[in-house]
């Protein structure tokens, strides 16, 4: 090849989500993949690349075998919640250089159902091996690490607990328009703050939900786009970065790795943050979203608390964030990074405009679920406790 090929997301779909008691993780992988390939107007035979993680000993070999795929390009990167943004970076580079033409990224998990059945337990410490073993005995669970960084941000910049609660309230507002969302009833700042304390300053409603579900996207080279039936969503720029594992090695607890991955993605896209119409950001905890908003340059460091107020990040606001309701209200089955790309794709294709979109059960999705006239969106995933980040700038012609 004389010139790298442009790459687009041409298919995006959810599996069954929410409460999925009667299905396996493998089934959700296959269901999401089948729906995404059909969404693209392609067939299983067109797929020559597969990226997946979170299931099986030899993932994605086992997942590919289950689905009858024999990819010639694979990725099984594992960097936590940002895994699928980072995988997308790798896949885009591979497609651009001709190592693959059509790549599926897929994830599925029955976390909620498995916990209910007693088949697994919540992993709060990420094990006892490696450097983490020196922190775990002192109570440094995953949520405690986020709580520490949140308190530091509050100390440095005066961010208030009410501002953090507003992130959860806005997520629930957006979820109210999403028939697929796990929780849709409105909540108030007072309700968030009066809830059970989980890890100071996080009350229950400031923490992501537990659900089941899966999703998939299909990436394709520009010369395959005419074969697809959907409006292509082009990957304009991408970036990845890792920060730390041990908290003592984190130089600044108020800044996450998205500050670097985002800068690279915007530079490669030739796009400024103020040109972006909406963002899909990992929100395992309210501060995670607020910090990422700052790190990506949508506002200055320390101004995130004020930025999320006045309905700005709600549907109908100046800058909607997580229009589907995010991990705080819509869906969070273990890891959520791929769901960010699915939602960003569907928004940019205007799937919901005029009620064109439907849930997997055929329920019409209201037009109010759409970010009007969106041309550029960002999907940014965070892994671990601000340990890793992958950011994609996406756009339509």
Q: Structural class, please? A: alpha/beta
Rg for CA atoms: 19 Å
What kind of oligomer do you see?
A: single chain
**Helix percentage range:** 25-40%
Number of domains: 1
Strand fraction: 15-25%
Question: Which secondary structure elements does this structure contain, and how are they paired or packed?
Answer:
Layout: E1 7-14, H1 25-40, E2 49-52, H2 61-67, E3 73-75, H3 83-96, E4 102-109, H4 111-116, H5 142-157, H6 161-175, H7 189-193, E5 197-199, E6 202-203, E7 213-221, E8 233-242, H8 258-269, E9 278-281, H9 286-295, H10 304-307, H11 326-329, H12 337-348, E10 376-383, E11 388-395
Parallel strand pairs: 2-3, 2-4, 9-10
Antiparallel strand pairs: 1-7, 1-8, 4-7, 5-6, 8-11, 10-11
Detailed description of the structure:
The protein has a single domain (7-116, 208-395), classed as Peroxisomal Thiolase, Chain A, domain 1 (3-Layer(aba) Sandwich). It has 397 residues and is an alpha/beta fold. It starts with 6 loop residues before the first strand and ends with a strand. The longest helix has 16 residues, at 25-40. The chain is 30% helix and 17% strand. A hairpin with a 4-residue loop joins strand 10 and strand 11. It has helices spanning 25-40, 61-67, 83-96, 111-116, 142-157, 161-175, 189-193, 258-269, 286-295, 304-307, 326-329, 337-348; strands at residues 7-14, 49-52, 73-75, 102-109, 197-199, 202-203, 213-221, 233-242, 278-281, 376-383, 388-395. It is globular and about 55 Å long.
